[in-house]
Amino acid sequence: MKIRKGGEMARILVAGGAGFIGSHLVRRLLVQGHEVVCVDNLSTGFLSNLEDVLGFPQFHFVEADISEPLDVAFDAAFNLACPASPPHYQRLALETIEACTLGVRNLLSAALRQGAQLVHASTSEVYGDPEVHPQPEQYHGNVGTLTERACYDEGKRLAETLCYEYHKRGCSVRIARLFNTYGPFMHRDDGRVVSNFIVSALSGRPLTVYGDGSQTRSFCFVSDTVEALLRLMALPAVHLPVFNLGNPREMKVIDLARLVLHLTGSDAPIHFLPPAAADPGRRRPCIERARRALDWQPRVSLETGLQETIGYFREVLQVAGDGFEAASFVACP
């Protein structure tokens, strides 16, 4: 799915493009022939995620924070600029709130001023600990304001409200609610369950499960997420489009741990800890809207995606030094 401006390839801004999903999106856009401007403050992203494209003439990197005024011309923009893993957004709580408010408003203002399209990456966290299952886009959520997750959950909810207000003022904006994307270029210490389990299994350390592991999640491989984001950008935005983007296959966390142990061939034990505060009990997206309007559904099975992610982390763990460096993995277009 290509984005065109007047029949020509577009100049596309990817905010947060040095992060996990953003770096995959940057590659896909470059393969399609677009000029790509990546804006990232590198608080949770890494230039090493983009090492293989830094020399491309149509790629430009700007180290900047979207919470500050930004003077960049673009035809379309994807906003993925926000810490997304619990350890990161809890450590950077105020910065997370600023990215979701000041940052989103800056991008929306720039898009409106330039007549550009914008896809804003929201999250399934806007549903909180849902009382409706699976979660359709019409569900308003069950979220608390006074929790360790609130900087992210409520920040993303307010970001959607900003999108709503700017859409009323003529901004061509779309909202993507992402559900548990995983794959290569996740940070090995980012605290999300897939990377935690894989790194622990490959290192022979216990896999930590909070509670009894009966809580469920739905995991979507990154190439499927990127494809959905591109299709969403190409969708006309007469009404404010809001889409769940995720894999409707639901899995218990304990079953994910056992699957990772099986696929890695690890004999690492599973270690149980008390339940995490405000941890949602169930998550599963209803994606009927995306199936109908975007002609999209996930194509990569969990087993296949995990095998590719395990291969990536095998390389990561072989890299010398104390800091994280991306392995020599190149995402397929």
Automatic annotation (TrEMBL):
GO terms for cellular component: cytoplasm. GO terms for biological process: D-xylose metabolic process. It is a single-pass type II membrane protein. It is found in: Golgi apparatus membrane; Golgi apparatus, Golgi stack membrane. It holds the Pfam family Epimerase. Residues 12-246 form the NAD-dependent epimerase/dehydratase domain. GO terms for molecular function: NAD+ binding; UDP-glucuronate decarboxylase activity. InterPro entries: Epimerase_deHydtase (IPR001509), NAD(P)-bd_dom_sf (IPR036291), UXS-like (IPR044516). Its cofactor is NAD(+). Keywords: Decarboxylase, Glycoprotein, Golgi apparatus, Lyase, Membrane, NAD, Signal-anchor, Transmembrane, Transmembrane helix. This is NAD-dependent dehydratase. It comes from Syntrophotalea acetylenica (Pelobacter acetylenicus). The lineage of its organism: Bacteria, Pseudomonadati, Thermodesulfobacteriota, Desulfuromonadia, Desulfuromonadales.
